C-alpha cells in the first residue's frame, strides 16, 4: 500500500462571500497618502483631466494606480485586485475610466507634465516636513550637499509604439533618463525626481539631455533649496553621474549655477604613461569602504597636477583610484602593474580624496533605484502614444516615491525596514491579508495576530495616523 507523502496539506476549497482582503497591508500606503492630502492636491493640480461631474476624481485615479503599482501590479487592469475590496479601497475607477484619463493626457501632455511636477513637489515638501529632523533639506550644506544621480537606462518594447527605436544593445524600445535623490546609506532607498522618456536610440552622453533632466529634477526640490529671488542655491546640491556626464558643456552649465558635481572620467589613452608610477604608494592614500574604514588593497590620489585638465570649469579636480583587477575582469591597455585605474572629476570644496572617492562610488545605489522603478511600472510601458507612456512613467515614479516617503516620514532612524527593497515591502507587508467585520454598526479591518510584520504594521499605522493630525491641510 502506498502512503501519501504530500509536501503541503491538501484542503478542500470553496468560495465565500465574506469580506476577505488579499492586500490589506496596502492600507498603510493609502492611509499615508491621505495624511499627505493627496486627494486635494491632485484636484488642485490635475482636476482638469477629469470631467467636472465625474465620480472618480483625479486623486482617485492617480492614487489607485500608484497604490496598485507599489503593491506589485504592472498594468491598469491589475486594479481588479484592489477593486475586489471596496470596503477597504472604496469604489475604484474602471479600466475604461483609466483609459479615458490617459487619452486626456495625450491631448495636452505639456499641461499634464506641469501639473504632475507641481503635484509631486508639493507632496515631497509635505513628506519631508513630516520627517522632522530626518528632513533631507535640513542637512544639505556645501560640505554635505543633497546628491542627485543622473543615469540613463533601457526599457524594451515588444510591440511597435510611438518613438520606439533600436538600442545600442541590439534591442528595441526606449532609453529613459532618470534623476534620483540619494538619502545616503542606511537612510532609505532615496527617491525619483524625474523620469524622462526618450527614444531607444537616444545618446547616453547628450549634454542637452543632462541639462534638461537636471532642471526638471531641481524644480522638484522644496523651496528651501532656492533663494528669495527663486534662484537655486547650487552649493546645496551635488550632481553625480557616470562618464556620460563628463562633457564640458554640462559641467560648465553646473558651474554657472554654483552646483557641485562628481562625475566619472575616462582617461585619454595618450596620458596612460603618466600613471606608470602606480607601484610607488607613498603619494597615495588608502581608499575607504562604504563604512568609512581604510582598505588595504585600493588607493586614491589627487592627480590634477599630474594630468592637467583643459577647458574644464575652475576648481575641477581629477582623482584616480587604483585597485587590483577583480576575479574574471578582462585586462585592458590602461591597466598598470595588475591594477585597474579609474578616475572621476569633482569641484567639491572638500579635499579628502578617499572620502570623495567613496562618495562617488556610492553612485551604484542609483542602479538599485532604477531597478526598483522598473519594478513599479517603468519596465512595462503599456500604451502606444508616447505622451501616455510618459504619464505612466510619472505615475510609476510616484508609486516609488510614496514608499520612500513612507520610510522617511513614518520610520525612525535605523529601522530595519528602511533597507528593504520594494519586493520585500510587497511580500512581507503589502500582501498581508485581512478581513472586514462589522462591530457596533461600524466596519473594522482585522489583520492577523500572527502576521510576521505585525509590529511594523502597527508602527506604520500609528505614525501615519499621527501625521494626519499634525500635517496642516494643503493650501
In short:
By secondary structure, the protein is of the alpha+beta class. The chain is built from 14 helices and 15 strands. Strand 10 (285-288) and strand 11 form a beta hairpin.
Key descriptive features of the protein:
alpha+beta, 475 residues, 15 strands
Describe what this molecule looks like in 3D.
The structure is a single chain. This protein has 475 residues and is α+β, with helices and mostly antiparallel strands. 36% of the residues lie in helices and 17% in strands. It is built from 14 helices and 15 strands. A nine-stranded mixed beta sheet has the order 7-6-2-8-9-13-12-11-10, sandwiched between helices. Helix 1 (27-35) runs parallel beside helix 14 and helix 11 (365-378) packs across helix 12. The N and C termini lie far apart (75 Å). 40% of the residues are buried. The model has no long low-confidence stretch (mean pLDDT 90).
Rg value: 25 Å
- Largest sheet strand order: 7-6-2-8-9-13-12-11-10
**Mean residue pLDDT:** 90
Q: What is the count of helical runs?
A: 14
- Give the percentage of residues in beta strands: 15-25%
Structural class: alpha+beta
Unreliable spans? none
Q: List how many beta strands DSSP finds.
A: 15
Helix-strand pattern? EHHHHHHHEEEEEEHEHEEEEEHHHHEEH
Fraction of residues in H or I helices: 25-40%
Q: Which outline best applies? A: globular
Sheet with the most strands, sense and barrel status: 9 strands, mixed
